[in-house]
């Protein structure tokens, strides 16, 4: 369990920038006013507290609201290093996954769109709330397929639907 009062005594959190700063000198690099924390391999800001790494977005939430989030924290814009309060929201695991960026193995350059090898047309499909793929349609261009995907994403997932690719 995270000690929020201890965190507040060591760090300050700027909700407009998403940065954490040291309140007190804690060694050579940890000088009062300096930006605190490191970025991990996945791009998340990590802050050390009581000898453990704490994800910055969870710490920001706790320092702002005085308690740990009851669910996951979703970065609205998909940038895991952007811990501005306006970019953070509580979300279920499913909602957090819906707001993922385009997968690295995507070859069309557009989320929800792939080439259908047999027909040479562009296929749009989406995962439904049960985790199953649903076919949206086949289109002559990737752009039309992506527009259909985005329409369906807004219907199915509302505010958690990713606005861009």
Please describe the topology of this protein.
Layout: H1 4-10, E1 11-14, E2 19-22, E3 38-39, E4 45-49, E5 52-55, H2 56-65, E6 72-75, E7 88-91, H3 93-98, E8 113-116, E9 121-127, E10 133-139, H4 142-157
Antiparallel strand pairs: 1-2, 3-4, 4-5, 6-7, 8-9, 9-10
Number of H- or I-type helical stretches: 4
**Spatial separation of the terminal alpha carbons:** 37 Å
Total domain units: 2
Query: What structural class do the secondary elements suggest?
Result: alpha+beta
Strand residue percentage: 25-35%
Helical amount: 10-25%
CATH architecture of the largest domain: Alpha-Beta Complex
CATH class of the largest domain: Alpha Beta
State mean pLDDT (0 to 100 scale).
91
With strands numbered from the N-terminus, the spatial order across the biggest sheet is 3-4-5
């Amino acid at each position: 369990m995270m000690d929020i009062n201890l965190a507040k005594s060591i760090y300050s959190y700027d909700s407009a920038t998403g940065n954490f700063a040291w309140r007190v000198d804690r060694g050579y690099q940890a000088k009062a006013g300096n930006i605190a924390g490191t970025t991990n391999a996945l791009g998340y800001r990590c802050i050390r507290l009581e000898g453990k790494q704490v994800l910055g977005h969870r710490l920001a939430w706790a320092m702002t609201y005085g308690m740990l989030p009851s669910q996951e924290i979703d970065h609205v814009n998909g940038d895991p290093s952007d811990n501005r309060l306006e970019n953070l929201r509580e979300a279920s695991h499913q909602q957090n996954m819906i707001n993922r960026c385009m997968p690295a193995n995507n070859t069309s350059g557009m989320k929800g769109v792939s080439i259908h090898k047999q027909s040479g047309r562009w296929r749009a499909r989406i995962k439904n709330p049960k985790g199953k793929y649903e076919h949206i349609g086949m289109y002559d261009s990737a752009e039309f397929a992506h527009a259909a995907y985005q329409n369906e994403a807004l219907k199915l997932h509302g505010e958690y639907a990713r606005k861009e690719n």
